[in-house]
Specification:
Blueprint (H helix, E strand, L loop, with lengths): L2 E10 L3 H6 L2 E6 L4 H4 L3 E3 L13 E4 L2 E8 L3 H8 L2 E4 L11 E4 L12 E5 L1
Parallel strand pairs: 2-3, 6-7
Antiparallel strand pairs: 1-3, 1-8, 2-6, 4-5, 4-8, 5-7
Length: about 120
């Protein structure tokens, strides 16, 4: 598998972990507006070397999650803003244009320094 995107979580917004309770992970690159940053896992912005695709893998720390749906602007949002909303529900149709859906258990926590990547 080739790495399409790889980064490290550098900050965690005050409400970011609340989204995990709703089976969601919301990311944004460093430099996000403060009101948005509060709800996101903030990461170093990296190069996106390809498109996110169904059948690919999201890797978060030591855990791997098969990608089941990709919204039509998810790759663009990741490339330009470092922003994605990951839903841990295994749906095969993206709920929103920027959503990515994966199969697997929602992490209970995501510590600082965790690696976050997409593979294809």
């Amino acid at each position: 598998m080739n790495t399409i995107f790889q980064t490290t979580i550098t900050r965690i917004g005050g409400y970011a972990r609340d989204a995990l309770l709703d089976d969601m992970l919301i990311t944004f690159r460093e430099g996000a507006p403060a009101d948005i940053e509060e709800y996101c896992f903030i990461h170093q912005h990296g190069i996106t070397a390809g498109d996110l695709q169904v059948g690919g893998i999201m890797e978060l720390g030591e855990n791997r999650y098969p990608i089941t749906a990709v919204g039509e602007v998810a790759t663009q949002n990741l490339r330009e803003l470092g922003h994605v909303t990951v839903r841990f529900d295994g749906e095969t149709q993206a709920e929103f244009p920027g959503s990515i859906h994966v199969t697997g258990p929602t992490p209970g926590d995501i510590p600082l320094g965790s690696t976050f990547k997409f593979l294809l």
